[in-house]
Write the structure tokens for this entry.
Amino acid sequence: DVKVTQSSRYLVKRTGEKVFLECVQDMDHENMFWYRQDPGLGLRLIYFSYDVKMKEKGDIPEGYSVSREKKERFSLILESASTNQTSMYLCASSFSSGRAGNEQFFGPGTRLTVL
Amino acid sequence: QQPVQSPQAVILREGEDAVINCSSSKALYSVHWYRQKHGEAPVFLMILLKGGEQKGHDKISASFNEKKQQSSLYLTASQLSYSGTYFCGTPSRNNNDMRFGAGTRLTVKP
């Protein structure tokens, strides 16, 4: 059974704190993604990675960084959390392929609240 | 750039039909559809490829008009289990990153 796990389901942090969100997949996928989900805005891509140590900015990378030291693990870092980063964060992974793209498998999400 | 979905929300009775539309301002090679039930992660439904090939769900159908850069998802004879938010996704030219629409919330009532 394919699996994407995220380190926490719920997280509460204070403004200015450094926050780490971790994602692990067990499917040997090349691609990993971090999305942010807000009501009415859908899934917005923050960063993605197509290989170990490789990363690409998505549409809303400001205030975030990522790390991928191992193929199965992709971390999202909020260097200095702000209240406008309160959101649901979803991690996903997929195989790499041609132009059509591949099915993405999502983790359960982390609901982050920044006070 | 995110694809545009319509409608934003739809409420149905069991057995009724619904159509969800997805359009893009850029040329598409494929369109993906996902469903997210309340409190759960999005789950892949199907992919539609340029040339008409479709892979995925056997009870939900979809169309893909490459020239118009549009796709539609058809939910016929809706069941309570169809409730959720539906997202269309369009891959970029390379590296398989995806852009998702804002979602369509479908509610099926008894």
In short: The interface with chain A takes residues 2, 5, 8, 29-30, 32, 34, 40-44, 47, 49-50, 87, 89, 91, 93-103 of chain B (CB under 8 Å). The radius of gyration of chain B is 13 Å. The mean pLDDT of chain B is 89. The CA atoms of residues 47 and 95 of chain B lie 17 Å apart.
